[in-house]
Amino acid sequence: MFAAFLAPAALAVPAAALAHPHVFAEARLEVTVTPQGVVDRLRHVWRFDELFSSTVLFEFDADSSGALEVGELETVAEVIVTSIADFGYFQSVTVGDKEIAVAQVTDLRVDMIDNQLLVFFTSQPSEPVALAENPSFAVFDPTFYTAIDFYEDANMVLIDAPAGCGHRMVIPDPDEAIAQNQDTLTDAFFNDPAGNDWSKIFATRMEVRCS
Is this model's pTM higher than 0.85 or not? Predict the structure, then answer.
């Protein structure tokens, strides 16, 4: 079940249906920076809604104890990290028009707190990304099955940035995003309805700017 929401099986759903998320998560993103002004880590925390969390509990509570124990939590973590790997771990690192790949995630873990599933992990760009290049960072599910939202500016944090560098949280206006990308989206839809960039252009992102 979990894999169906996070894995390629979700892509079998028609594109129109994917426009309506079935799972909701509140996110926090911390981008840490080295003394040289290069991105070090992206720290992620996702808190899933209670309905989905209860489904995960039902699916993975192997001993029917009513709680997820250490081994069961490890199984959930393994399913998640394996499932989202094919989707860039649900994140985007962009410098100008260039998309930077994300290195393999090795530390993902989960917990169940107050009846909500929490996911914790860190990631790294696969190549150096300097803040002076004005990168942007986004977290989103490209299948549209999961809505990963940042509820307030404080949930996007830039840590140890050099003087003169700052960031802002950008929440795209859907109508403006569609208007600005209409030609590209139309081509993408007809060529590959399940693989278009709709989810990316709607994703909340952290934009970094250095003077």
Answer: no
